[in-house]
Design a protein that fits this description.
The termini are far apart. It is built from 15 helices and no strands. By secondary structure, the protein is mostly helical. 70% of the residues lie in helices and 0% in strands. Helix 7 crosses helix 9 and helix 12 runs antiparallel to helix 13. The radius of gyration is 23 Å and the shape is globular.
Length: 266
């Protein structure tokens, strides 16, 4: 880690004018915008020092490991020399707004275990954080929460949160280009983890929830194929046939259908 990155006195996030949970694309975009203003033709020689600091910020935050170490170092600094926001929130255990903010605070400061513990204590999926956080903070917090839940094999909880986020994004965009990453995490979860982690009825409920999220027809066709395959396994051939026909209507060239066609005589 470079010497500049070890200096917690400089808030690199403020320097780049980005949020602490900014994506790699956000960091790159912010750096380019700031660098334009510090070009020698505009800022002259006085911009050289600022440019070096800006470059250090970019190099640190765009590298996953260096960013992790920087965040820890800066967090230690702020806990010593600034208002102890964490303690302030912790003391308000009966206030759901404070606990919502504390969950988000802990996630941003890489205290994921603590954040999840508080979230579970507050009711888990039944805890309506959207009531207590600003919309953008709630959406950012929810995505970080879903990521951590999935890492800890809490697949259903992660799925529910991601579905809720995508529905809200469809209603009024906030994630925008970042939505691709949110959707990608959800699709990966469904493809690799969900079926083996849930009982059949809950798995079917999850698949059906995906059909109302506004995905394209080929993806919805694959979901309908999975629904049909699952219904065949439990002996509901009528329901399976209906789902499979709808899948073929959405994507006539749907792959991997030979066995279903044979079993359902479609």
């Amino acid at each position: 880690m470079s010497q500049n990155a070890q200096n917690p006195m400089t808030n690199y996030y403020e320097l780049l004018d980005i949020r602490q949970n900014a994506s790699a694309q956000d960091i790159k975009r912010a750096f380019r915008e700031q660098a334009k203003r510090l070009h020698p033709d505009i800022a002259g020689e006085t911009g050289a020092d600022k440019m070096r600091t800006l470059l250090a910020a970019y190099e640190t935050l765009s590298d996953r490991e260096r960013r992790f170490e920087y965040d820890k170092a800066y967090s230690r600094f702020t806990s010593k020399y600034r208002f102890d926001y964490r303690t302030f929130l912790k003391e308000r255990k009966e206030d759901p707004e404070s606990q919502s903010k504390l969950i988000f605070f802990e996630l941003l400061h890489l205290q994921e275990d603590t954040a999840l513990e508080i979230w579970q204590e507050q009711g888990g999926l039944d805890f309506p954080m959207e009531r207590y956080l600003d919309r953008e903070d709630w959406m950012d917090c929810s995505f970080l929460l879903a990521e951590e839940l999935i890492k800890r094999n809490s697949y259903y909880e992660g799925f529910v949160i991601l579905v809720q986020l995508i529905r809200e994004e469809r209603r009024r965009p906030y994630f925008k280009h970042f939505l691709e990453e949110v959707e990608g995490l959800l699709k990966e979860l469904v493809r690799l983890r969900l079926k083996t982690a849930l009982d059949t009825d809950l798995y079917l409920e999850c698949l059906e929830a995906l059909l109302g999220l506004g995905f394209n027809s080929p993806y919805e066709a694959r979901i309908l194929r999975s629904i049909a395959e699952t219904l065949v396994q439990i002996g509901d051939l009528k329901g399976a046939s209906k789902a499979f026909k709808e899948a073929l209507r959405k994507d006539p060239s749907l792959p991997n259908t030979v066995q279903l066609r044979r079993k359902l005589q479609v």
